């Protein structure tokens, strides 16, 4: 380039993003699929700070000591992701909905899922039915609470998640964010049980917003303004980059750079549906040793006072449930599950057959 002209190879390199060209400018940080090494390191440090609380929450739910090792992070696409996971997995999707928005979730192998669900339900060799998947969804929501609390503290926002969705799926049918996303791998060890890995994924938008808040990267709009070409050496950016011209009091419209057109955006109202508070989930480990009253309700009925006073030995009371219907399991008089009556040695017991969804439980409370 000594004569000031560009060769065809140099033009091709510019069109492809500048690969292989030395333009004499500052060296750019090494990137991996859209994240710099510094961004990856800061995000790794943030997630590493949550492993102890996640492990404590899982220990309380499983009744055994759980160890969660430091996570490893890489940027992948869908094909790369499904090539590194088992043929069949349990997918727990807990997307970020407020404060930060984007796709997020966990993937567990079926063996690890059966192990965790069995410990939560107090059973061995459980099937991955609706009850087991509901238990795994509760575990996913709980450990997500630890993560979003830590992220919210770091970025200075209240971060909320949408209601979760848990399913058993073939890896070929799994849906992931478009383009590249962030894959996190946590090695998990459960006391006296077979160890395994928990896979977590984040859409790139979440991670980018976090690194911007941590001060290790620039917002996309700011980056665009810094790279705006100069006109005639006078230090004025060209129109169309969303930068207002000084002295006119009229901002450019984002779409075309025309002066005098206001930038109108629709108002976003918060979701009025009740949702769990991640901060509460993050501190649930403090309550694991608290006793609560659990009752099993066979059925209910209403009787006149004179009928109640007239009851004696041998009186038969008809209830509002049919024979064979599941009984209700209540904690502090709030419905949390349904089950069927069993006999254990000489005692009655109840086998849990259905876990009431968080939304139904919320409607019971409100």
Question: Can you summarize this structure?
Answer:
With 366 residues, this protein is an alpha+beta fold.
Describe the overall structure:
The chain is of the alpha+beta class and 366 residues long. Among the domains are: 32-213, Chemotaxis protein chec (3-Layer(aba) Sandwich); 291-305 and 319-365, SpoA-like (Surface presentation of antigens (SPOA), Roll), CATH 2.30.330. The chain is built from eleven helices and 17 strands. The chain has helices spanning 8-15, 37-48, 51-62, 78-82, 110-121, 130-155, 204-213, 220-226, 278-282, 305-309, 358-365, and strands at residues 31-32, 35-36, 66-68, 72-76, 88-93, 96-98, 104-109, 160-161, 165-170, 181-190, 196-203, 230-231, 236-237, 294-297, 327-331, 334-344, 347-355. The strands form five sheets. Strands 3, 4, 5, 7, 9, 10 and 11 form a seven-stranded antiparallel sheet that branches. The protein has a four-stranded antiparallel sheet with strand order 14-15-16-17. β1 (31-32) and β2 (35-36) form a beta hairpin. α3 packs antiparallel against α6. The chain is elongated, with a radius of gyration of 28 Å. The model is unreliable at 17-29, 222-259 and 273-282 (pLDDT under 50).
At the fourth level of CATH, the homologous superfamily of one domain is CheC-like
Mean of residue pLDDT values: 77
- The SSE order reads HEEHHEEHEEEHHEEEEHHEEHEHEEEH
DSSP summary: helix tally: 11
Report the radius of gyration as a whole number of Å. 28 Å
Would you identify the regions where 5 or more consecutive residues have pLDDT less than 50?
17-29, 222-259, 273-282
In terms of DSSP E residues, the strand content is 15-25%
For the sheet with most strands, the description reads: 7 strands, antiparallel
How many β-strand runs?
Answer: 17
The helical percent reads 25-40%
Shape annotation: elongated
How is the CATH topology of one domain named?
A: Chemotaxis protein chec
CATH class of one domain, anyone? Alpha Beta
Which class of secondary structure composition applies to the elements? alpha+beta
